[in-house]
Amino acid sequence: MNYSQYTVHSPQTLNEALGILKEKQSEVRLIAGGTDVMVLIKDGVLKEKELLNLSYLDELKYIREDGNIIKVGALTTYRELEKSSVVNLSAPILVDACKTIGATQIQNLGTLAGNLGNASPAGDSLPPLYVLNANVKLQSAESERIIPVSEFFLGPRKTKRAPNELITEITIEKAKPGLHYFFKKLGLREANAISLVSVACIVDLDKDKKINSIKLALGAVAPTVMRAVKSEKLATGRQLDLNLIDEIARGVSEEISPITDIRGSTEYRRRAAYGLVYEGLYEALMGTAKRVSGGIEGVY
Amino acid sequence: MKVKINVNGEDFASDVEPRLLLVDFLRDTAGLTGTHVGCETGSCGSCTVLLDGRPVKSCLMLAAQADGSRIITIEGISKGESMNRVQKSLSESKALQCGFCAPGIVITASWFLDKNENPDEGEIREALSGNICRCTGYQPVVDAVLKASKEVK
Prior knowledge:
The structure holds two protein chains of two kinds. Chain A is α+β, with helices and mostly antiparallel strands.
C-alpha cells in the first residue's frame, strides 16, 4: 500500500511531547491508539504531514480514585476501562459503552482521549462522560486548564483544544450506589458499526419510583453529543409511569436535532431515540434496568 | 527510523519508514505472510495479531508504535508444525472455506479461549465480532470454536 510520506515524532515523556506540540502546533496530527487516524491516512485525507505518536507516554495510562472522583489518564484504552474495578463499581455506564466500540481489537487500541479528540458526534464513550459530569484536562508547555466535557466540543471534529494543547486527563464523578442506568445504542450491527443513535441515562428513583433526578445524554443526533436538558427538567420530581415515559421519550425525540446521512434519516433517528429512551426507562420502571453497585471507598 | 519488535520470540530490528504499518512490517520485514491484509481500515480483522498478549488489528498501527513490543502472529500461535486446539477444530470441522480470514479468527479465538474456560455461543460470537468472514455465515466457525473450548489446551 503506497501511503504518502509522513514524519513521525515519538516522544518518550509528556514534557517532550508538549515541547514538540509547542513548536509544531497544528502541523502535527496527534495519534494515540490510531483507530481513527490510521483510517484517514489510508483514505489519503489526512492533511497533516507529521504525526505526534503518543503511544509511549506511559505516564498518561492510569485509572486512579480520588475521593468521589475517578481520574483517567488520557491514553487509557477502552479495554482498560472495561477491566477496571472502580469503573465497574462506580461508573459502569462507561464500561457498557466501551464494550460497544468497534470490537475486541479496537477496544485494545483505542483511547478515551482519542474518542474526545476525534470529536465525532457518534463517539460512543462520550454520552456516558456527559452523564458522569466529566472534566477534560488540557495541558500545554506553559499552562493547564480544565473544561467540562459538555463545553469541550464546538461541533463535529471541532473542540476547544488549542493547537499547543494535549488532553492529559479525564475525570469523572462516581455515580451513587443504587442509581439506575442504561447505555443503549442503535447501529447497523452490534460490532464495528457507527452509532445511529446512542443514549446514556442515569436516573435516581426513590422507592416509590418518583424521579429524584435524571441525566440523559444522546450521541449522533446533533452536531455534538448533547444533554436532553428540557426532557430532564420535565421529568424531575415526577412519578415514573408509562405516561411519563412516553412524555420523556417524546420530549427527547423533539429536543434533538439529527441530520439525514448515509446511516439514517432525521425522522428515523427521532423515532429511534424515542424507542431507546422508552425502552431504557421502561426497564427502570420494571426494576430490570442495571443499577450502580458502588462499593465503599477502599473496600473493593 | 529504527524499531525493534519481537515477533514469535525472535527479535526483528530494522530501519523502517515512519509510515510503515505494523502489518507490512510483519509481512515484508519479518517475512511472515500468514497475517493477511484485508480492508486496511480496521473492519475485517484478518490482520489480527497479539500485541503484548492482546488482539489488535495490525493495519491500524504503525510499526513505530509497536517498537519494543512482543507480537504473536499466526505462525507463532502454536508450537512448530503442530496445530493448537482452535486450528485443529476449525480444520477437522471444515469450518472455513476460502481461508482468507482464518489467521485473524485463529488468533482472536485462541486468545479468547485462553481466557475463558467455558464460553457459551454468545460469548464466542461477541469475541469474534471484529473478524469478518464472507464465506461461512459464521455458524460453522462458532461451532468449531465451541468444540475447541471443550478440548484440553
